[in-house]
Write a structure and sequence with these properties.
The chain has about 280 residues and is α/β, with parallel strands linked by helices. The protein contains eleven helices and ten strands. The two termini are about 25 Å apart.
């Protein structure tokens, strides 16, 4: 049995992995797939890949592209979620801010530098015509940290996946002012170069298993109720999320990679656009 380490955020997107593990689908192929939840998100997972603490990660596209461009010896092996991510822009429920324009010059809560919440704050600022050099950040590590920071006035707004934070909106902890969708497929599967070079056949088996599960995921009877119960969401919200979400089973396209790099370069978060083979396997 070959042990493989994989990490991802503790969110509903990753339920197909948990179902496949619970069903023994990887064990049937001689793979002991060990999953670890990483609430801190993409910045932390990028560091884990770079440090060899994990073999695989389900990670935000823009975050891993930036990390690889900066020297992370990792490759994108496939899309995972082919549709955009809806980043909700949140403030504390009792915040004086009621429109996106009110947030100009205020402080964003981010999980860590290089995280999705960090990069998307730049994307949102660019969309609003703000000077990105004036952005301010408070590092809060995870969702609990964001709740504390916004409630205590240490930060003014927080960007996180809209449906993950919806229970906090319903509970009147956050107010959501708007959404900022990613203009590219939002999640990819990434693997370290070392893992790929030593386990290319094994990687193929892992992708075959998860692609089988992700292709059939929406067809599972009562999957909306299963997700709602497991993750504490309203079933109506889950149905809306399912209608907006598409799982991918192909490699990230050259065009999508170009779109990500061009946007990051325009925001001065990357110095240059690099060739596809720097990022994509094979």
């Amino acid at each position: 049995m070959k042990k493989v380490k994989i990490v991802g955020v503790p969110e509903h997107f990753n339920l197909p992995w948990h179902m496949a593990i619970a069903d023994g689908a990887f064990e049937d192929r001689g793979i002991d797939l060990s999953w670890t939840d990483i609430p801190e998100g993409t910045g932390r997972m990028s560091q884990m890949l770079a440090d060899g603490e994990t073999d695989l990660a389900i990670i935000l596209t823009e975050g891993i592209v930036k990390s690889i461009s900066e020297g992370n010896s990792t490759k994108i092996v496939q899309e995972y979620i082919a549709s955009p991510l809806l980043w909700g822009i949140h403030v504390a429920y009792k915040s004086p801010y009621h429109a996106l324009a009110d947030l100009k010059g205020t402080k964003a809560a981010i999980s860590r530098k290089g995280s999705g919440s960090h990069l998307m704050a730049f994307v949102n600022a660019h969309n609003q015509g703000w000077n990105t050099e004036n952005l301010q950040f408070e590092i809060i590590h995870n969702l609990d940290g964001a709740v504390a920071a916004l409630s205590q006035g240490q930060a003014d707004y927080f960007m996180w996946e809209r449906f993950t934070t919806k229970p906090l909106v319903d509970a009147k902890v956050f107010r959501r002012l708007d959404d900022c969708p990613t203009p590219w497929p939002c999640f990819v599967i990434a693997a370290t170069d070392d893992f790929i070079s030593n386990n290319s056949s094994l990687l193929g088996h892992i992708l075959e298993v998860i692609n089988t599960y992700s292709m059939e995921f929406k067809k599972i009877p009562s999957i909306d109720r299963t997700i709602a119960n497991r993750y504490g969401h309203d079933v109506t919200d889950v149905r809306q999320w399912l209608s907006l979400t598409t799982w991918g089973q192909q490699q990230l396209s050259s065009q999508s990679l170009k779109d990500v790099q061009e946007r990051l370069v325009s925001l001065e978060l990357l110095s240059q656009i690099r060739k596809d083979d720097r990022f994509l396997y094979p």
